[in-house]
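Re: [ENG-882] Designed sequences occasionally contain unexpected residues at chain ends

Forwarding the minimal case from QA. Structure tokens:
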């Protein structure tokens, strides 16, 4: 979700006002905060974490292209849908293990 907020142009509305506060520094801080969880996942299942990150990256590239083609950017609903997709993709990456 944070990658969508940071790298997809925001459309006008409440989602756009939230996305306007995101910059590279805040994105890096969010990754730093998430690092312990990512590290724990990699320690428990390196292959699962790799698969989860690969799936998340592939989803981001596809979803960004879809949003730009269909809407011309991201609105609040699109940002929320990215969060829901992350909640599904990451556990699926660990499912085989």
């Amino acid at each position: 979700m944070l990658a969508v907020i940071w790298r997809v142009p925001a459309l006008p509305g409440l989602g756009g006002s939230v996305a306007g506060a995101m910059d590279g520094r805040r994105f890096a801080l969010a990754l730093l905060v998430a690092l312990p969880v990512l590290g724990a996942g990699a320690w428990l299942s390196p292959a699962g974490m790799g698969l989860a990150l690969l799936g998340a990256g592939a989803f981001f590239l596809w979803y960004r292209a879809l949003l730009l083609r269909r809407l011309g950017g991201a609105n609040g609903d699109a940002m929320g849908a990215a969060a829901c997709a992350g909640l599904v993709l990451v556990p699926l990456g660990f499912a085989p293990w």
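QA comment: On inspection the terminal residues look reasonable. Residues 46-70 form the longest helix (25 residues). Proposing we downgrade this to a documentation issue.
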